[in-house]
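Subject: sequence -> structure tokens, single chain

Hey, anyone have a minute? Need the predicted structure for the following. Not urgent.
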Amino acid sequence: MNRRTFITGAFVSTAALAVGVNLSTSFTRQEHVQSSHRMLFATLIPIFLDGALPDVATHKEQAINRTLNTIEATINVLPQEQREEITLLLNMLESRFSLLLITGSLTPLILRQPFELIDMLESWRQHFITLLNTAYLGLREVIMASYYASPEHWGRLQYVKPTFVVGDN
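Reply:
Had a minute. Here:
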């Protein structure tokens, strides 16, 4: 066996293994997928909600957990097409091969530093490819809507729920 055959065989074997791992992880049970999405969202929530989360660590953790629960509920009530799109995006963000294609790095998002995530998201926001703009907006809207859906977070916005007076007519 010559060197060129060995290197080509090693490359093909590695590529086949990577594709096999990506395919096998896409057929996992729904509960596992949802929990892995929780980890991804737990990584992204502090980035999108910088300055909005409480300063006290325990309160911050509780706010993130409530937001994660709300995100799951929000995704579950989305129309089927939108739910499929967000699930596809989340699966891509958790797949190393897809992550390499859309971010240029194999490093999982949960292992990246906050400044790296900020740079990545900002580049998506400003990117000339509309699909990346849509991915940024989709993640942002799901996280922001889920966080501010809770009345306890309205105080920082100085928002007061309107009251309606039912008059006697």
